[in-house]
């Protein structure tokens, strides 16, 4: 049914407009009486429970940052079967993001290009919503992804991140420092170890007991991936998210001129699968077993999720697959994981 709706309706609609149309639908799934009905249909099998970051996850599969930018859909996403929801990216200063259009589908490639630019209502607004959702007795694990405010110069980025940290860390189950989006000028330069160390130290100290992770780009050379992973371990971070979107356009089947016309932005979805998996393996090879590694990028099927888990991921996240698979995506993934494990 969803495949038909996507082909006949959503595929002909501006992707960002389509996303905003489904937000109230997903939110409705999280409201009584739909919430318990949906959860009964989608609840992950108990065999999928995962312990990570000192937390219990109903499933290792969750929603990556970028889907629920303003922390308004977490209860509905829990009702749809996701084990965790990483909200954001949020910034200390509310911002509109980049000019539209800024989100583009690559349907044949099962991908997306976005240059959203951290459009969000600000860390303070997200903190209020996270606080309300966190009081739910049954809910997904809630992560908060924080980025640099566009109006803040790179040299003042640390103070900006600390402001967001103080707002959202007390109401989040875990916190992710995003220094890897390609859509905020100067942001990816913060991944260099010499600039990343003081930033992560300051955020770690401000986060208190909230587990802290850092999210990296797939476009880093392997040696820099290793350096960031070792830095995260050295600083006592709880984990690392691998990976964000890529600026590469390699391997696409879409017409090159059409892709070029879409312009700059991060590519996500199936085209990212190979590199994201490679980065995961590089990270896992240099960090301790107990270090949490969250895999993201190019995940759409249960086989994709299981492949990441087999490669050493502690948890797995998806985003683009939701656009192509629809609201029962997490249910499909969770059931597929159980079926795959029974055949081993």
Overall description:
The chain has 344 residues and is an alpha/beta fold. The chain is 40% helix and 17% strand. It has 13 helices and 13 strands. An eight-stranded parallel β-sheet has the order 3-13-12-10-9-8-7-4. Strands 5-6-11 form a three-stranded antiparallel β-sheet, with no helix packed on it. The protein has a two-stranded antiparallel sheet with strand order 1-2. α5 runs parallel beside α6 (157-168), α7 (193-207) packs parallel to α8 and α11 crosses α13 (329-342). The radius of gyration is 18 Å and the shape is globular.
What are the SSEs and their pairings?
Layout (H helix, E strand, L loop, with lengths): L1 H7 L6 H15 L4 H9 L7 E3 L2 E3 L3 E3 L10 H6 L4 E7 L12 E4 L4 E4 L8 H12 L6 E6 L10 H12 L5 E5 L14 H15 L4 E5 L5 H13 L4 E4 L13 H7 L3 E4 L3 H14 L5 E5 L5 H9 L4 E4 L1 H6 L3 H14 L2
Parallel strand pairs: 3-13, 4-7, 7-8, 8-9, 9-10, 10-12, 12-13
Antiparallel strand pairs: 1-2, 5-6, 6-11
Unreliable runs: none
Judged by helices, strands and strand pairing, the structural class is: alpha/beta
Taking Cα atoms only, what radius of gyration do you get, to the nearest Å?
A: 18 Å
The largest beta-sheet arranges its strands as 3-13-12-10-9-8-7-4
* β-strand number: 13
Helix content: 40-55%
| Annotation field: number of helices | 13
**Content of β-strand:** 15-25%
Whole-Å distance between the termini? 31 Å
What is the element string, with H for helices and E for strands?
Answer: HHHEEEHEEEHEHEHEHEHEHEHEHH
Major sheet: size, sense and barrel closure? Answer: 8 strands, parallel
Give the CA-based shape.
Answer: globular
Mean pLDDT: 96
């Amino acid at each position: 049914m969803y495949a038909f709706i996507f082909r006949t309706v959503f595929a002909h609609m501006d992707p960002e407009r389509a996303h905003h149309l489904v937000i109230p639908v997903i939110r409705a799934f999280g409201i009584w009486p739909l919430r318990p009905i949906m959860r009964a249909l989608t609840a992950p099998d108990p065999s999928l429970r995962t312990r990570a970051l000192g937390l219990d996850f109903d499933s290792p599969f969750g929603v990556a940052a970028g889907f629920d930018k303003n922390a308004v859909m977490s209860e509905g996403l829990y009702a749809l079967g996701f084990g965790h929801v990483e909200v954001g990216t949020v910034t200390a200063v509310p911002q509109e993001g980049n000019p539209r259009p800024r989100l583009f589908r690559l349907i044949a490639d099962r991908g997306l290009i976005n240059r959203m630019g951290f459009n969000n209502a600000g860390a303070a607004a997200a903190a209020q919503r996270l606080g309300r959702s966190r009081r739910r007795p049954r809910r997904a694990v809630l992560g908060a992804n924080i980025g640099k405010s566009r109006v803040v110069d790179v040299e003042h980025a640390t103070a900006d991140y600390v402001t967001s940290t103080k707002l959202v860390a007390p109401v989040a189950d875990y916190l992710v420092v995003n220094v890897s989006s390609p859509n905020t000028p100067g942001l990816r330069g913060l991944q260099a170890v010499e600039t990343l160390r003081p930033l992560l130290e300051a955020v770690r100290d401000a986060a208190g007991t909230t587990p802290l992770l850092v999210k990296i780009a797939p476009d880093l050379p392997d040696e820099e991936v290793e350096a960031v992973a070792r830095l995260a371990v050295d600083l006592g971070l709880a984990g690392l998210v691998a990976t964000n979107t890529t600026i590469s356009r390699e391997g696409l089947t879409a017409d090159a001129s059409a892709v070029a016309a879409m312009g700059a932005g991060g590519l996500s979805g199936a085209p990212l699968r190979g590199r994201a998996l490679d980065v995961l393996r590089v990270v896992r090879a240099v960090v301790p077993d107990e270090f949490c590694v969250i895999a993201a990028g190019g995940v759409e099927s249960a086989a994709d999720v299981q492949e990441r888990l087999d490669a050493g991921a502690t948890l797995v996240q998806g985003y683009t697959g939701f656009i192509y698979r629809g609201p029962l995506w997490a249910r499909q993934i969770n059931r597929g994981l159980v079926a795959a494990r029974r055949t081993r």
